[in-house]
Specification:
The strands form two sheets. Strands 2, 4, 5, 6, 9, 10 and 11 form a seven-stranded mixed beta sheet that branches. The chain is mainly β. The chain is built from no helices and eleven strands.
Length: 121
């Protein structure tokens, strides 16, 4: 129903920056919220940042002040600007979208395929 295409991952040196993008497409009525999660080896998936259609933003404490989430509602796209990156930011980053979908108008979660972010000198 809804497909998420992520881009922007890669290798960055400590202190560097990366920008992730996630575009949603497919059959949907509306998007309630978009978010980025990450999962490092041996750890559970954790919320990095989220943004609702109403503009409410939430950050994990570990990234507050360094990462910025934003969205382009016209393009159904969410971005994650990551600055002052540290080795502990290294993980697979996943896009998550809470969308209202046909035929019954229920809200369902959708996940991207994940993009690897490596922080290393």
């Amino acid at each position: 129903q809804v497909q998420l295409v992520e881009s922007g991952g890669g290798l960055v040196q400590p202190g560097g920056s990366l920008r992730l993008s996630c575009a949603a497409s497919g059959r949907l009525f509306s998007i309630y919220a978009m978010a980025w999660y990450r999962q490092a080896p041996g750890k559970e998936r954790e919320l990095v940042a989220s943004i609702t259609s109403g503009g409410k933003i939430n950050y994990a404490g570990s990234v507050k002040g360094r990462f910025t989430i934003s969205s382009d509602d016209a393009k159904n796209t969410v971005y994650l600007q990551m600055d002052s990156m540290q080795p502990e930011d290294m993980a697979v980053y996943y896009c998550n979208v809470e969308a209202v979908v046909p035929p019954d108008g229920r809200m369902k979660p959708f996940w991207g395929q994940g993009t690897q972010v490596t922080v290393s000198s």
